[in-house]
From TrEMBL:
<feature type="transmembrane region" description="Helical">
    <location>
        <begin position="380"/>
        <end position="397"/>
    </location>
</feature>
<dbReference type="InterPro" id="IPR018490">
    <property type="entry name" value="cNMP-bd_dom_sf"/>
</dbReference>
<keyword id="KW-0406">Ion transport</keyword>
<feature type="domain" description="Cyclic nucleotide-binding">
    <location>
        <begin position="1116"/>
        <end position="1232"/>
    </location>
</feature>
<dbReference type="InterPro" id="IPR013099">
    <property type="entry name" value="K_chnl_dom"/>
</dbReference>
<keyword id="KW-0812">Transmembrane</keyword>
<keyword id="KW-1133">Transmembrane helix</keyword>
<feature type="transmembrane region" description="Helical">
    <location>
        <begin position="1292"/>
        <end position="1311"/>
    </location>
</feature>
<dbReference type="Pfam" id="PF07885">
    <property type="entry name" value="Ion_trans_2"/>
</dbReference>
<feature type="transmembrane region" description="Helical">
    <location>
        <begin position="1323"/>
        <end position="1345"/>
    </location>
</feature>
<dbReference type="InterPro" id="IPR014710">
    <property type="entry name" value="RmlC-like_jellyroll"/>
</dbReference>
<feature type="domain" description="Cyclic nucleotide-binding">
    <location>
        <begin position="511"/>
        <end position="611"/>
    </location>
</feature>
<keyword id="KW-1071">Ligand-gated ion channel</keyword>
<dbReference type="Pfam" id="PF00520">
    <property type="entry name" value="Ion_trans"/>
</dbReference>
<protein>
    <recommendedName>
        <fullName>Cyclic nucleotide-binding domain-containing protein</fullName>
    </recommendedName>
</protein>
<dbReference type="GO" id="GO:0016020">
    <property type="term" value="C:membrane"/>
</dbReference>
<feature type="transmembrane region" description="Helical">
    <location>
        <begin position="192"/>
        <end position="214"/>
    </location>
</feature>
Length: 1370
């Protein structure tokens, strides 16, 4: 590219030589390719290719274009201008679609204008230099760190602006915020304290506007991210933003409309109040900034570094809050102003009681909270949430057509919004659980398959642990031989990642030393990584595994070839084994067993040979070692002559020591290698020397018991705090739970754990240190008795018997709330259960959400009373709490912030006074004073005794009775507040269930403003809680049916393909019938894939256990070596053949060998006639398989058959290792050929029935009357007839029609005694239905069934089959 600029430079520093200038010009032109090179035409000029000619033409056109712009561009003097430190302004010129140049000014002209030009030219030159330096290079990188924090800070301010401006604009006007009022004379009155608070809020709002204005300017220079890089051109960036809708919505959101409104509307003090009210409405335009939220959440979702569930949960919370605020605004706007319709409650929902919103007085401040602006806001939110969550208590309802219309819109918005959240949450959970469900389905299928084949329990446990280990390490994303973590990466990137694995091979194996790095990279894709749990065999004696093993992590033990119990060596990371099978293709002579969790790298010989074939010296080296018999004999001899491995033991002191001294000595020696402080050394003495194993039964029982006790303790503490149960026995029970928690802390110091290397750590100091670094401090804080400190500070014990006794216990209840923190163990416990892939998720699901439901519903039941009934400081004294109700008219804001707590309005020194605790006064007095006023008002106008108030002769209210707060809660309805604790708990529990399940009968609803706020969060949380449970159930159901859905989608695709190809109908039915039979036998699971990915030794042993019956059933394989059986078991595949289908046909090539395990087949010859029958235990197709000839006979299934097949290529590889088995098979093939020839000859020579010539000469068109069949024979035939189970009549009559009639019968039976309707028509209808049910029972006894092999049974025998078929009915 070409660039230029202007800059200031001294004239004496510029070279004035024309030669130097020409030389610089020439070099600059050479660098940019502008110089026209001389073209020498010769003999080769006419032989140039078409591509060269095209390039030459493009260069010529480009040169002509540059010549045209030469006068505008000048000359590129980059080296000169760089040397002279001169900046050059630039302008982009478009040459073509693929090239851009920069318009430059002549540098000498720029220097002249900058130093010697006129004042105007100097300013223009300085401006160009300033713009080049500070503007053209400035842009905002959307992927930079600054923009990352700026965007998140801006989103926070957007949310603050939205809620603040909508609240001030519609619920709190500026005159109320500033405390300004205009009296009748036009004088302005302002409250100083209120004005200060209002000014601070307004200033904060305008500070947020400053940030939005800055962001609006930054978006013009925000870089554009494309697939090919980032565009930093200022014009392009600005045009991109100007052409978007965001430019105009952002401008409208920051435009100060209220300033113009002030200028136009304000003329005198009389209009000041109206102008201030209008300001709030006009500043609502700031809420338009929320239009940037969808784009922000889309950006977060597209970023792979963010968690999708976290982003969606944050999005739902923000959207729910915003839509609730908007709906509350619309509902409030539909209601009339309380000052206009306060005396007519039927005009609007705002005037009705509840909510009973009162007008705000401009001359005095009312003490009733219902006249405050905040009560209007909470009431609107409360009603909006009740409609959006479909709770609908009925305490607030629309009173006119407009309110009904808006209420309908709000309900539809709420239903759609929560439905959308639920749908997205379901999809998210389903996608998150899909890999786990798929992997777990594979594991459970393997378990069922092993149990079906009755494998040994030890083999089953080994297979389950190996599969579970794959999930715990790689979440099932890396399965050896199936899929790899690096499968989606390019080859060079995959090779770089596996350099660490290759280095292990280089360091440990001698044959790979001095090997070239490029060759090792070729081997990288062939390396496999296997994970082994402790106690698992990697190699067993006699295995034939052509792989080289290198230990990467963990420790293994090697056993003697002749004594499998004697350990002869311990293998550590970096060591290798398996060279006997890898180099010599011999059976292994020693077994290798893991001691700890091990990670082993393997290299198959076949993959190595593919690479080594191109490296002559490496191939020659390995071949030479493989042919060295002495090396093999030395390995065998060394293994057989090895002695038992002796562990190094601690040297014992010859001095006799006492028992205590031995313990001290052992303690010191155990800690020699551990850095420990003196404090840790002292605390270690209190620990036991033994630790608790992770898989011990005691630990499992203790954890379950502790989990249940934590839930029970949570319930008891919440109920105690809410209903103020001060029984001594209740406290004793809770302190027993505390003792259990302390014992649990001590036990946690001794629980073993697995470190990063999957090694179990058993040292007590290490287990204690790990617990201290993890959850110890949380457990300690959750059990620390803070109430003891309060008792020590609170005074002597004699005060407990005073009037403040109940409140002292009330305080103890609240201080003990720290015990609730122990509930954190519940999600951790279920997370640990779900982490175990071997656990059935269904059982965990029920326990998990059952426990969560108990915790949640108890919390919702108690939290309103816990918040509304706090303990009082003054009640702990002997005088008690006596308050005189406030009769001053003050607003709720001043009640909360500006009350003079030292005045006589609340304390009378001549009467019983309360302790003037400043903390109590600032935190509780304003609320209690207001509630006292409300309590007295309601008690005076109440005709019943549902509200209890204790006062003295002077009218002072005694608040020492804690249960008085129940009369100010929702429990006041239905006269529940003064009933026993059990009744109050049942009523509160009833309210919690009806509210969270969105039922809302309306018998209990919010009584105070605090309850409105609590109920808002309760309704929203209840909707989301039950929605989350429903989403989890839906996701689990979708994932559980995934395998069935995939299978039937495949079947549907096959049907469509067959129909599209216009295949015969009979063939299509055969294909569909086979798929149905395949689903019956396999349930969509391929048994061959169940053991894929397991270690080679375990794969061979597991396959042998699965197919041992099949192999032993073949007589020729009974006495073969164990290694041959293992290899054979790994390559055979199950095959299911329906009755009437062919296994092989005449003329098929012998590529497969079949073993008949169950069922029978019949032989068909070339003549089309069927010969003898072959039962299970025979080999099919061995002649064509071994002789490589075409089959001379066909085999057709006489019944549903189970076969096992193997391919010729795989079987030949096995036979190469066992030539003696090949010889036996050849002998068997020769005998089979002779036997088939004999059978065919005997079949052709069999006597055939002779037909009479007279019968042959009879005309075929003569009528032959049918012989009559006796009725008795027909009856016997019908009596023995058995229906097929797939007959449409049976399917629709037995399953659908009769089921519907049974429902009708049950409804009639229940209807008659319930409603005392004994109509005569019911009795014959009952008998007709009973006759149909008896007929259905007879039909069911005559329906055949399919056994587990898919074989249809239609033979009827009262002695044997009747009971069997009857059991199949239900």
């Amino acid at each position: 590219m070409w660039t230029t600029a202007c800059g200031r430079v001294r004239p004496e520093d510029v070279p004035r030589s024309e030669d130097l200038t020409n030389q610089i010009h020439q070099r600059a032109e050479e660098r940019t390719g502008v110089v026209h090179q001389k073209v020498v035409e010769g003999l080769l000029a006419h032989t140039e290719t078409h591509e060269a000619a095209r390039q030459k033409k493009q260069q010529k056109e480009l040169g002509e274009r540059i010549e045209e712009l030469k006068t505008e561009m000048g000359v590129n003097l980059r080296p000169l201008m760089t040397a002279l430190n001169v900046d050059r302004p630039q302008e982009t010129l478009k040459l073509s679609d693929s090239m851009e140049l920069f318009k430059i000014r002549d540098p000498m002209d720029e220097l002249v204008e900058y130093n010697m030009g006129s004042w105007k030219e100097k300013c223009a030159s300085r401006y160009r230099r300033f713009r080049q330096r500070f503007w053209y290079d400035f842009s905002v990188d959307p992927e930079g760190l600054f923009y990352y924090f700026w965007e998140r800070w801006l989103i926070t301010m957007v949310l603050l602006t939205f809620f603040l401006n909508t609240y001030i604009g519609f619920f709190q006007s500026y005159d109320q915020l500033l405390g300004i009022s205009v009296d009748g004379t036009g004088d302005v009155n302002a409250a100083a304290a209120t004005q200060t608070t209002g000014i601070l809020i307004i200033v904060f709002d305008y500070v947020l506007d400053v940030f939005f204005i800055i962001d609006y300017g930054l978006k013009f220079v925000k870089q554009i991210v494309t697939a090919n890089g980032k565009i930093t051109d200022h014009k392009t960036m600005a045009l991109r933003y100007i052409k978007s809708w965001g430019c105009y919505t952002d401008l409208l959101a920051v435009f100060p409309i209220e300033i113009f409104a002030v200028k136009l509307t304000y003329s005198d003090n009389a209009q000041l109040e109206n102008m201030l009210k209008m300001l709030g409405y006009l500043k609502v335009n700031r809420a338009l900034r929320v239009l940037t939220l969808p784009q922000f959440f889309d950006y977060l979702s597209a970023d792979l570094n963010n968690s999708i569930p976290s982003v969606r949960v944050a999005k739902f919370v923000v959207y729910i809050g915003m839509f609730t605020q908007i709906c509350a605004v619309f509902l409030f706007l539909t209601g009339c102003d309380p000052s206009d319709c306060f005396y007519d409650p039927m005009l609007s929902w705002t005037a009705a009681d509840p909510p009973g919103i009162q007008p705000v007085s401009t001359t005095s401040h009312s003490s009733d909270i219902k006249s405050s602006k905040s009560y209007r806001y909470t009431s609107s939110l409360y009603w909006a949430v009740t409609m959006m969550t479909t709770v609908g208590y009925g305490d607030i309802y629309p009173h006119n057509m407009l309110e009904q219309f808006v209420a309908n819109i709000v309900m539809i918005i709420g239903t759609l919004m929560y439905g959308y959240c639920l749908a997205v949450l379901t999809a998210t959970i389903a996608n998150l659980d899909a890999p786990r469900v798929e992997f777990q389905g594979r594991l459970f299928a393997l378990i069922s398959y092993m149990e079906y084949n009755r494998l040994a329990r030890a083999v089953q446990d080994r297979a389950i642990d190996s599969v579970a280990l794959l999930w715990s390490v790689s979440q099932g994303e890396e399965i050896p031989g199936v899929k790899s973590m690096t499968a989606d990466m390019p080859d060079h990137l995959m090779e770089d990642i596996q350099v660490d694995d290759l280095m292990h091979l280089i360091a440990g194996v001698p044959i790979f030393k001095n090997i070239e790095e490029q060759i090792l990279k070729y081997l990288a894709p062939a390396i496999r990584r296997y994970l082994f749990p402790p106690g698992e065999f990697i190699i067993q004696t006699g295995d034939l595994i052509s792989e080289l093993f290198v230990i990467r992590r963990g420790f293994c033990s090697m056993f003697h070839p002749e004594d499998s119990t004697m350990c002869i060596a311990i293998l550590h990371p970096g060591m290798y084994f398996g060279e006997i099978g890898f180099l010599f293709n011999k059976n292994e002579i020693a077994s290798i067993k893991t001691i700890t969790h091990c990670e082993v790298l393997t290299l198959p010989r076949s993959a190595f040979d593919e690479v080594a074939v191109n490296v002559e010296w490496l191939q020659h080296q390995v071949l030479r070692i493989s042919q060295e018999k002495k090396y093999y004999e030395d390995l065998v001899s060394a293994a057989k002559n090895a002695k038992a491995y002796v562990r190094k033991r601690r040297q014992l002191s010859p001095i006799r020591m006492a028992e205590t001294e031995r313990k001290k000595m052992g303690f010191k020696e155990d800690l020699n290698s551990i850095h420990i402080s003196r404090l840790g050394l002292y605390l270690y003495r209190f620990l036991k020397k033994d630790t608790i194993a992770m898989d011990s039964r005691f630990l499992h029982f203790w954890e379950y018991f502790r989990l249940a006790s934590v839930v029970v303790q949570f319930v008891l503490i919440m109920v105690q705090c809410a209903f103020q149960i001060d029984s001594i026995s209740y406290f004793v029970i809770l302190y027993l739970f505390d003792l259990q928690a302390m014992a649990d802390i001590y036990l946690k110091f001794h629980v073993q754990y697995t470190n990063d290397m999957h090694i179990v750590v058993t040292h007590p100091f290490m287990t204690a240190r790990r617990y201290i670094r993890s959850n110890f401090w949380m457990d300690l804080f959750a059990v620390f008795p803070f109430e003891m400190l309060m008792c020590m500070v609170g005074g002597s014990a004699s005060e407990v018997d005073g009037p403040g006794r109940s409140e002292i216990f009330h305080w103890i209840m609240y201080v003990r709330i720290n015990r609730l923190l122990q509930i954190y163990r519940v999600p951790l416990a279920f997370q640990y259960m779900e982490k175990d892939i071997k656990v059935d998720p269904t059982s965990v699901f029920y326990y998990k959400y059952g426990t969560y439901w108990v915790i949640y519903i108890i919390f919702i039941t108690c939290i309103p009373l816990v918040i509304q009934c706090p303990p009082l400081f003054c009640a702990t004294t002997k005088q008690g709490c006596y308050f005189k109700p406030l009769d001053t008219n003050r607003s709720d804001l001043q009640l909360a912030m500006d009350m003079d707590y030292g005045s006589d309005s609340w304390e009378d020194p001549q009467h019983k006074t309360a302790s003037a605790d400043p903390f109590y006064a600032s935190a509780f007095l304003s609320y209690i004073s207001h509630q006292t006023d409300t309590l007295l008002k309601r008690s005076k106008r109440s005709s019943s005794s549902t509200i209890f108030v204790q006062t003295d002769d002077d009218g002072y209210v005694n608040l020492d009775v804690s249960e008085q707060c129940f009369s100010l809660s929702f429990l006041v309805f239905n006269n529940v507040a003064n009933q026993p604790t059990l009744n109050k708990f049942v009523a509160s529990f009833y309210w919690a269930v009806t509210t969270t399940t969105t039922t809302g009968f309306g018998d209990f609803f919010a009584f105070t403003q605090i309850e409105q706020i609590i109920f808002i969060f309760t309704m929203i949380s209840g909707t989301m809680f039950y929605g989350y449970i429903i989403a989890c159930v839906a996701a689990a159901q979708a994932n559980s049916d995934a395998r069935r859905s995939r299978f039937f989608e495949r079947l549907l695709a096959v049907k469509n393909y067959l129909a599209h190809e216009h295949l015969p109908l009979i063939l299509r039915k055969r294909v569909v019938r086979y798929y149905e039979y395949l689903w019956l036998r396999t349930q969509g699971i391929d048994p061959q894939t169940l053991i894929v990915g397991l270690p080679p030794s375990l794969t061979g042993e597991l396959a042998l256990q699965l197919y041992k019956k099949v192999i032993d059933q073949i007589a020729i394989f009974k006495n073969t070596p164990m290694g041959f059986k293992k290899m054979l078991a790994t390559i055979i595949k199950p095959l299911y053949i329906l009755q009437g289908e062919y296994v092989t046909r005449i003329g098929d090539t012998g590529t497969d060998l079949f073993f008949l395990y169950r069922g029978s087949v019949e032989v068909q010859y070339r003549s089309g006639e069927f010969g003898f029958e072959i039962r299970s235990g025979r080999i099919l197709g061995e002649v064509a398989f071994l002789t490589e000839q075409k089959a001379q006979t066909s085999f057709r299934a006489k019944e549903n058959c189970d076969l096992y097949c193997l391919t010729k290529k795989e079987f030949d590889l096995v036979l190469d290792h066992f030539p003696e088995v090949r010889e036996k098979l050849m002998e068997e093939a020769i005998e089979s050929m002779e036997r088939e020839a004999d059978y065919q000859r005997l079949f052709e020579e069999r006597p055939r029935p002779e037909t009479s010539k007279a019968k042959e000469s009879m005309p075929t068109l003569l009528f032959k009357p049918e012989e009559g069949v006796p009725l008795r024979v027909k009856w016997n035939s019908a009596r023995k007839h058995i229906f097929r189970s797939d007959v449409l009549f049976i399917r629709y009559f037995n399953k659908f029609t009769v089921t519907a009639l049974r429902l009708v019968s049950v409804m009639l039976i229940l209807y008659q005694p319930t409603f005392y309707r004994f109509l005569p028509v019911f009795y014959p209808l009952h008998y007709i239905l009973e006759f149909i049910f008896i007929f259905d029972l007879i039909i069911r006894l005559r329906v055949g069934f399919l056994d587990k092999f898919g074989q249809s049974h239609r033979k009827f025998s009262w002695a044997s089959q009747h009971k069997k078929m009857a059991n199949k009915i239900y």
